[in-house]
Amino acid sequence: MKKLSIALLCLLLVGICACRQDELPGVTTERPTTTSASAIVELDPGEFAAYSEVIKDYQAQLVDNEYLLAQDYAFCNIEGTNLLLLGIENFYIGSLFDSVYAIQNGVAARQEEFRAPQLGHDLITTLFKNGTIRSDVDDAGARNYCYHRMKNGELKFQTVVVDEGNCWFGFIDDKRTPISKEEFDRVRKEFEGDGQVVELDWKPLAEYGR
Predict the structure, then answer these.
(1) 191 sits in which H/E element
(2) What phi and psi, each to the nearest 5 degrees, are found at residue 114?
(3) Domain assignment present for 204
(4) pLDDT top residue among 92 and 100
(5) Is residue 208 part of a domain?
């Protein structure tokens, strides 16, 4: 009887661990995957003026700092909000963005929840047509995929999943937690949808307003 009780307890613990690795809280598949992001080339006068102040600031900094990362700009629209993206040209894969701005109360506000930990050969930033922005970076062989979406006119961080080749992780209560490969794939599918990407129209900062 004692052996049976121990066996049942082991099975229960295995079940609990399996459940913990099966699904990340707060990540569901209920969100529609309809197209909600696109590249844009025109703004209304108010947006143009607000974003021009950001561009001027970056141009002024470039004069004194030739290594400043933000050198290009592009516009996109996500769920009705026109956003300014700032980044650099990567020789291997084209322009990447590390800063996102949205107009809030008539002022261009940097979206602080956007996480692009570094710029260089290892970072890739992607805007999907379903409105998701993904920034992914290689960290000592572990690929980190950070997902962001617009909510009430602001870009909000959603979740991050990590691929280490033969094991996968998510974050539960800000703690790195093992997850199954199935859960890793499910999260990526949820945020990336069918994988269609928005092709952004990148331009040098100096060409803003021309």
Answers:
(1) helix 181-192
(2) -75, 125
(3) no
(4) 100
(5) no
